[in-house]
UniProtKB/TrEMBL annotation:
Domain ABC-three component systems C-terminal: 198-333
Name of this protein: ABC-three component systems C-terminal domain-containing protein
Record-linked InterPro entries: ABC-3C_CTD6 (IPR046914)
A Pfam family: CTD6
Species this chain originates from: Bacillus methanolicus PB1
Length: 338
């Protein structure tokens, strides 16, 4: 069962936010409803500030929301300002092409959480429509901000109907792997059309090709005029969906785990390639290829999935790099002056 809390809510919203859309910025954007309208302080009496660590811990459900933020969210000032804040401040930061996917994912999360009362579910889902998006996001935000955000280590994570529940920790996960010997997740073939969740990394791929050619831009429709890039583009999408196959397959087999092993995979991959990413390159495509070559070589032993035969190979690790671009951890392949 997926659980509705600030972390899961924020992760879904993050996918739809325009760049830069790192965890800190998205947390600041959402909590701005409260910090812009109330004087919130930390334990030392200083103004409340969102740090990188705080944002990461909230996103990954490692800590609960700060008590003073929770208390401020109940003030009539905040409640009255919520709809307007999300309409005037948050919605302009959302990519229009991502709205339907975001609503669908949030609706699924609401529906699947058995801890949310049925009347609350009906209240939220009544606004799950693009025309009332600001209301949907604001009422949901005011709800999740008060919920426990920290995942309990003793909470069982559901498996599929053929397996018993297991505790969400690495030891139990390893024991389960040794017991059931899970097969390779069903591969996902790249669809003919670019999906909304691909938009960010695809944009950066095209920018890398354009940079290599000395062009300002290279639209996807023009790739057929550059056969080598068209071939490369297909290969990159294949890698992305190899990683996506693991992400979805692991969720279906193991349910939620603590820590999230796919997040561990992303962190391991990032740590293994970031020095190569930050090297100097003649153009963005050279940086892309350098990083991908490094990704194929690195070990990701901290991720339990790497211990399952045939799960994590070169293609999957390369695909994770594209996900890091989507997440904003790798900002872009083409170096800018910013």
């Amino acid at each position: 069962m997926s659980r509705l809390c600030f972390g899961t809510y924020a992760k879904i919203v993050q996918k739809s936010i325009k760049e830069p859309n790192g965890q800190k910025r998205v947390t600041e954007l959402l909590l701005g409803l409260i910090t812009d309208n109330e004087d919130v302080t930390n334990q030392e009496g200083e103004p409340f500030v969102v740090t990188d660590k705080l944002a990461s811990d909230l996103f990954n459900c490692k800590i609960n929301m700060r008590k003073k933020i929770k208390e401020a969210s109940s003030s009539q000032t905040i409640i009255n300002a919520a709809h307007d804040y999300f309409e005037d401040v948050v919605l302009p930061e959302i990519m229009p092409e991502m709205i339907k996917d975001m609503i669908a994912e949030l609706a699924d999360l609401i529906s699947s959480d058995d801890t949310v009362p049925q009347d609350k579910k009906e209240e939220f889902l009544r606004f799950a429509d693009p025309a009332s998006l600001h209301v949907f996001l604001s009422v949901l935000f005011l709800y999740v901000i008060k919920k426990d955000n920290k995942l309990s280590k003793e909470s069982p994570a559901p498996l599929n109907n053929r397996m018993p529940s297991i505790l969400s920790d690495v030891k139990k996960l390893k024991e389960l792997i040794e017991k059931i010997h899970p097969g390779m997740p069903a591969p996902i073939a790249p669809p003919g059309e670019i999906e909304s969740h691909e938009m960010v990394y695809v944009r950066e791929l095209l920018a890398a090709y354009a940079d290599a050619e000395g062009l300002d831009e290279l639209p996807k429709e023009s790739l057929e005029s550059f056969p080598k890039y068209q071939k490369d583009f297909k290969r990159r999408r294949k890698d992305y969906y190899a990683a996506e196959s693991i992400r979805r397959g692991a969720r279906d087999v193991f349910g939620e785990t603590n820590p999230d092993q796919f997040d561990v995979l992303k962190e391991e991959t990032y740590d293994g390639i970031i020095d190569v990413y930050e090297n100097e390159y003649p153009h963005g495509l050279a940086r892309l290829k350098g990083v991908m070559s490094q990704a194929a070589l690195i070990r990701v032993d901290k991720c339990v999935y790497s211990q399952i035969p045939n799960w994590i190979g070169a293609s999957e690790k390369k695909g994770v790099c594209h996900m890091l671009v989507n997440d904003g951890k790798l900002r872009e392949w083409v170096e800018t002056d910013e």
